[in-house]
From TrEMBL:
InterPro entries: NUDIX_hydrolase-like_dom_sf, NUDIX_hydrolase_CS, NUDIX_hydrolase_dom, RppH
Motif (Nudix box): 44-65
Annotated signal sequence range: none
First-level EC class: hydrolase
UniProt entry keywords in alphabetical sequence: Hydrolase
Annotated protein name in UniProt: RNA pyrophosphohydrolase
Record-linked HAMAP family: Nudix_RppH (MF_00298)
Cofactor: a divalent metal cation; Mg(2+)
């Protein structure tokens, strides 16, 4: 499966005024409340040729119902993860070996009522909350943990 490509993806580390980050609970994972990977940062696939800075706002609008934010920083590196063997051929439409991600730190400029998970007929998330940046690695599934550790370290200057 090493011949499969990586899917281009963007992710949002959305900080509120207190320096906490928005995490959302995946609607498709049973017992997601306490499971690693049950809570994650908004992220999603890029369209071919799409600018990552445009894509991150589109993905936030699709996943959390709002794009009310301003970019604080774009991570300088693309980060990669490979799917574990049991998900290859199933996750990501079965067409990818993992994802190549461009991450952004953003400041939320709206009010909490702007965050709407109910706008999509098939929502990816069923709940959201604000979390400390240091919580991120513990929320991640094992194959994404290294990325969440790096985000927590590299975007720490924006935390409260």
């Amino acid at each position: 499966m090493k011949t499969l490509p990586y899917r281009d993806n963007v992710g949002a580390v959305l900080f509120n005024a207190a320096g906490l980050v928005l995490v959302a609970r995946r609607a498709d994972l049973p017992n997601a409340e306490g499971a690693p990977g049950g809570w994650q940062l908004p992220q999603g696939g890029m369209d071919p040729g799409e600018d990552p800075a445009i894509a991150v706002f589109r993905e936030m609008e699709e996943e959390i119902g709002t794009a009310r934010a301003e970019i604080l920083a774009e991570h300088p590196d693309w980060m990669f993860y490979d799917l574990p063997p049991e998900l290859l051929g199933r996750a990501l439409g079965g067409k990818y070996r993992g994802q190549r991600q461009k991450w952004f730190a953003l400041r939320f400029t709206g009010v909490e009522s702007d965050i709407r998970l109910d706008l999509d007929p098939h929502p990816e998330f069923d709940a959201w909350r604000w979390a400390g940046l240091d919580e991120l690695p513990g929320l991640a599934v094992a194959f994404k943990r290294e990325i969440y550790e790096r985000l927590a370290r590299d975007f720490a200057r924006f935390a409260g």
